[in-house]
Amino acid sequence: MDDQELETQWTDAARQRFTAEVEALAEAVRAHGAAVLAQTGAQAELPALFAAGDELARAVDSYGDAQWDLTGVFPPVHVHGHGDPDGAEDDGADPGAVVEVAGLVRIVHRADFAVTDPEAVLAAGRAAYREVWPEDGEEDAAADVTDLGRALYQVQHAGGLAGLEDVAGLDPLGSTTWYVDVTDEEEPPEDPYRDDSPQLLLRLDETFGPDED
């Protein structure tokens, strides 16, 4: 830690900046949550979700910088590429340089749900089956959706991954999304899903509380 960094610690200015970044981060989280909840599975809706994610990532970065300036300690949340743990910036970086954009990005998304009512999930799966195959009857839906896996498949088939968030009997617990640059890889990277992988463009984690209903 150098003298310049020490000059900001515990100062009124640093405290005021951190207070402002707390509010900005809270607003970014709310905006991102609203963008997620607005998704129905339509591809045209994805740009708004990605834009909200970018804003959230910037807010997390700014929050981390403000905490570092105030305390000399980074928070437990960060965006990959935020900076060195010791707060040092890249030397010789040209802020006007053109950034090379990845040509092929792999997006890996994991979401965890608690199954609180298996029968309700089966019913949702059968309803989704009827939505996709309206000419079929209840007997056909019941014959197709006989287990949890098939029910989840039919829900996703009808409404995309976002459709799972509104299923009675499923409570979302959290999710993680990994954006990995695989432009120069003929084969999948051996292990790109490490926080220190140079191929990891962004990791976005969300945790949801228990259902209030």
Could you characterize the architecture of this molecule?
- The chain has 213 residues and is an alpha+beta fold.
- It folds into three domains: 69 residues; 60 residues, no CATH class; 52 residues, no CATH class.
- Strands 1-2-3 form a three-stranded antiparallel β-sheet, with no helix packed on it.
- Helix 2 packs antiparallel against helix 3 and helix 4 crosses helix 6.
- The longest helix is centred in the first third of the chain and has 26 residues.
- The chain starts with a helix and ends in a 6-residue tail after the last strand.
Question: Which helices and strands, and how do they pair?
Answer:
Elements: H1 3-8, H2 12-37, H3 46-71, E1 105-115, H4 118-132, H5 138-144, H6 148-159, E2 170-181, E3 200-207
Summary keywords:
6 helices, three-stranded antiparallel beta sheet, 213 residues
Tell me which oligomeric state these chains represent: single chain
- Report strand %: 5-15%
Question: What characterizes the major β-sheet?
Answer: 3 strands, antiparallel
Tally of separate helices: 6
Flag low-confidence runs: 80-93, 95-99
Number of self-contained structural domains: 3
Tell me the Rg in angstroms. Answer: 22 Å
Short description:
With 213 residues, the chain is an alpha+beta fold. The protein folds into three domains: 3-71; 101-116 and 170-213, no CATH class; 117-168, no CATH class. Helix content is 43%, strand content 15%.
